[in-house]
Amino acid sequence: MAAEINLQMQMDEMQMDMTIYLVDDIIYMVIPGMGWVKEDITESEYLAQSFEDPEMDELFGDVDLLDLFYSIKIDSNTFLPAENRIAFTVTIDMMVEKIFLKQDTIIKYLEFGTFDAITVPGEVIDQAVPLDG
User: Fold this and answer.
1) For 3, 22, 50, 115, which has the most beta carbons within 10 A of its beta carbon?
2) What is the pTM of this model?
């Protein structure tokens, strides 16, 4: 599996753009304050523990899902996915605060079959440090 993901997020007045590469089971991404990092997703303790870790459960406390919407659009000519939409609202009791989070994500699939391979730029490979240190 390989992917180049160009992510744009808008949170109130703040815009965040991010590029993520996934090639040969290695994910490359920028983490603010750390720069480019890399992680082997087949052996990733970080990714595996992010959602099962009891410490995370303790930190985030109770999460209440208020609503959830999911849709997928399929191109009628190619039968390939064209767009996904995931929207949800949750409240999180985190420590002593209650956080209200509303997210609406649209994923568009572009350029199927228009290139032979996804390559990670050399400067990303050179700058990326292992996520675990």
Assistant:
1) 22
2) 0.61
